[in-house]
Amino acid sequence: MLGPVAPASAATATLLYSCSGPGFGVGAYDFTAVVDSDVPAAVPYGPDRATGWTVHLVAPDSFRQWAVDQGFTTLAAGARLAPSVDNVPITDTAYASAAVTSVPTTSGSWDWGTASTGVFTTKLPASAVGHHVLTTTVEVTVAFQKNGVNAWATSATCTLDASVPPADAVVDQYDVVAATTTTGLTLKGDVATATVTSNGAPPSGTVTFSVSSTTVTMNLVSGRASATLPVLPPGGYQVSAQFVPTQPTQETGSTGYATYLAPRIATSTAAAARYRPARDLVKARAVVSTEGFDVAGRVTFVLKHNGVTLHNVTVDLNSVHVAKKTFRHITAPGRYVVIARYVSNETYRPSSDRTTFRVRR
């Protein structure tokens, strides 16, 4: 009786092999092997996958009787597999040994146990999306002892019995599917950086960054892409980074999100003053500008004479971002300073400028 061998994944094949080899008794012996791999039902597209194997071997009674007739008392057995994927042999082979066992003297099939120790892994290809069938050949190895002394060792080439239908010779089946990607998004200042990882092949494609109504697409290089965010009105915004793979059948797309807090917009103020001595007045003017935005708000004009404040007046910016103020009765000689301060608010940062003029009498 075969011991219980649970399938590791999609299938476990119980196969009948005819094994023969030099000195391997007379004729061929029909061995039963339960062969299984740990390949999962779905494998992400990418590099070859390390796959483990197990083989549960059972020898026929005729082979047991032959070993008894030779006077053999102890057996060390193993199996060597040469797998194929879709009937194409792969370059790796796998070998493992079963536990040392005594040669039974009673009749019946001879259970050699499970061979799964040692170097018993192969690399299965995962570079073709679709369904794949896994089969293998088996070579049985034996080493007998007689009364504790090494007596005889050989290997036997095993072929599937002609009675085994080809469909029943399948050890496992697996599907190579698009590798799953994950996109992480980080923000440092106004620079957004997307990092794309994959459970299979290294990701290849583009990343589209989106914030407000602005999008920009960058190529992914070594799993990363970066973009500078546009200047935005102050407030909180959701930024997204969408990875679009070059080959959608080989990799899935993914999207990462982050929150961006746009700072207040920087402003600059340019002050000017024109003194008219005939009318004893000065016309002060301030132009406030920003990068890419129509600025609104108020400007405070401060007029000083020889360091003493004469006037402090706040006026609104007009539609072309200019504030104006006329100061009259400017008659005392000396140095005058006009300071223009743009008043900050929730949207714009403050800025200021100054200019001077002299009155001579």
Automatic annotation (TrEMBL):
<protein>
    <submittedName>
        <fullName>Ig-like domain repeat protein</fullName>
    </submittedName>
</protein>
<dbReference type="InterPro" id="IPR013783">
    <property type="entry name" value="Ig-like_fold"/>
</dbReference>
<dbReference type="GO" id="GO:0005975">
    <property type="term" value="P:carbohydrate metabolic process"/>
</dbReference>
